[in-house]
Amino acid sequence: MGALLEVSGLKVNFGHVEAVKGIDFSLTEGQITTLVGANGAGKSTTLLALSGLVRKAAGQVVFGGQNITRLPSHRIVHLGLSQVAEGRAMLTKLTVRENLELGAYHRRDTDAITSDFDHVLELFPRLRERLDGYAGNLSGGEQQMLAIGRAVMARPRILLLDEPSMGLAPLIVQEIFRIIKMLNDEGLTIFLVEQNVRQALKIAHQAYVIETGEIVLQGTGEELLDHPRVLEAYLGI
Amino acid sequence: MFAQQLINALSLGSVYALFALGFTLIFGVLGVINLAHGAVFMVGAYAALQAVVLAELPIWAALVIAFIISGLVGLAIDILVLSPLRKRDAPHLIPMIATIGVAIMLNSAAQGLFGADTLRFPPGVVPDGSIEAGGLHITAVEIGIIALTIVIMVVLLLGLRRTSIGKALRAVAESPRAAALLGIDVEGLFRKTSFVAAALGGVAGVLISLYANAVYPLMGQPMLHKGIAVIILGGMGDIRGALIGGLFLGFAEVFAVAYIGSTMRDAVAFGLLFLILLVRPTGLFGKANERKA
Ligand SMILES: Nc1ncnc2c1ncn2[C@@H]1O[C@H](COP(=O)(O)OP(=O)(O)OP(=O)(O)O)[C@@H](O)[C@H]1O
Ligand SMILES: [Mg+2]
């Protein structure tokens, strides 16, 4: 299977800060690809640029053969690229059900939406009891589940996840990684940004390491787990 | 006498509510305090007046024309002023200042086109009979104002609760970025909101100019102050708040005039407003309404 998403020469500046300095990477269809790195390395900026939420200073993004570099955010989502942003981007004043429904906002295939809704509730049974409560009243873990479920409701071809394990208890983190693995087993292509480097590399087929806006290493998840530089800088060994 | 005051207060309060509705919609969805909303209100009144005087249209058609023309002005404000500022990530005071400029331009344009004098609708534009019952009388204008406000409120509240676009609007109101990531066309909703909010402001302008029988270039100015008071009282960005706040101000003014004296009208109304805000600083329906990135 070939590259579903190809990024070349991606650059993002914030004023005089070069947050992303011309990086290349690709996502293979059906795989989990991870992008790991320390605080401020440029991970979120990269994801926001893919989704069209920050301006790209240079570079090109090709998704399924189509150049999406300059498309507005909502069109990118409609094409099948969904993102669960850092901090979950909860709509706290909407109910859990409304959040999920909004995930399918642009879709018109009512029957498939209903079956996706049921599927999300099977993946995250805890959401079922909270359907008519406000999303703002959910725990952090439940909010992350809702954010992922909501993105799945768009029936994306690629799911971008920005630090889904952030701020969660170890048990919940296990649960989230299990779900990511499961979604991928169902055929979803996943781009996972993490600071939880060990966990991310364990489930990833392909991996990139980013430092101060540049990709410094790449390989399979397994390869990088044993790489001396990764061991030293990220796994504390 | 008391019942008569109730009717007066209800119609005046309805116009305030209608005006505040557009104002609060813009704030809630775009996050902008639109100080041109009073000028848009004035545009609606002139549009209807021209429709009646020049084109000799019936008042309902004049209302439709006012709705469309002021809506288009709102749309133009978004496209020409607010949208370019959004694209440059202007800090939130900047769009507010820009709308002051828009208001001044619209006011000057009205003055240039129609003069500074107060204009009036020709007699017979609205049926001038009134319904008399038990010593009360209510005019056709008052009935129209109250009915129209109720209908618009119900449509908006149900629309926001029940429809898909309503959900999307609430999402944008809470976080444009989160909404964009869900595939919602945020810019498109900003445009639609700008149109509808201004259109409602224009309709309010027609209604008040029928009620007071006066159209003049600066008629939006006192209304703007009241509109700000109403949405602060109701809770910024809250639609029910605009309704309750508008009615409250209408009642406060009418009863202040009736029982204290007409010179004290605004002093009493705004004094009460101040007292309420001391008790509830976020307004009647305001929660801690922080906008998130
Ligand atoms: N909106 C912004 N304005 C200015 N600078 C920004 C902005 N967003 C990010 N930056 C800067 O860009 C660099 C990369 O930030 P980014 O958020 O992409 O890092 P990250 O890898 O996601 O970090 P973390 O793991 O902490 O989430 C940092 O130096 C950051 O300060
Ligand atoms: Mg980040």
TrEMBL record, chain A:
Q: Which domain of life is it from?
A: Bacteria
Alphabetic keyword roster: Amino-acid transport, ATP-binding, Nucleotide-binding, Transport
Which segments constitute the ABC transporter domain? Answer: 5-237
Q: Does the keyword Plastid apply?
A: no
What PROSITE patterns would the database entry show? Answer: ABC_TRANSPORTER_1, ABC_TRANSPORTER_2
> InterPro entries, alphabetically?
AAA+_ATPase, ABC_branched_ATPase_LivF/BraG, ABC_transporter-like_ATP-bd, ABC_transporter-like_CS, BCAA_Transport_ATP-bd_LivF, P-loop_NTPase
> What GO molecular functions are on record for this protein?
ATP binding; ATP hydrolysis activity; branched-chain amino acid transmembrane transporter activity
Which SUPFAM superfamilies has this protein been placed in?
Answer: P-loop containing nucleoside triphosphate hydrolases (SSF52540)
- Keyword ATP-binding among record annotations: yes
Gene3D superfamilies reported in the protein's UniProt record: P-loop containing nucleotide triphosphate hydrolases
An example Gene Ontology biological process: L-amino acid transport
Question: What family is this protein classified in?
Answer: Belongs to the ABC transporter superfamily.
Name by which UniProt lists this protein? Branched-chain amino acid transport system ATP-binding protein
Automatic annotation (TrEMBL), chain B:
Q: Name one GO biological process term.
A: amino acid transport
Give the bilayer topology: Multi-pass membrane protein
Q: Where is the signal peptide?
A: none
What InterPro entries would the database entry show? ABC_transp_permease, BCAA_transport_permease
Q: Single GO molecular-function term?
A: transmembrane transporter activity
The record's GO CC annotations read: plasma membrane
| Predominant location category | membrane
Q: What is this protein called?
A: Branched-chain amino acid transport system permease protein
Which organism does this sequence originate in? Pseudochelatococcus contaminans
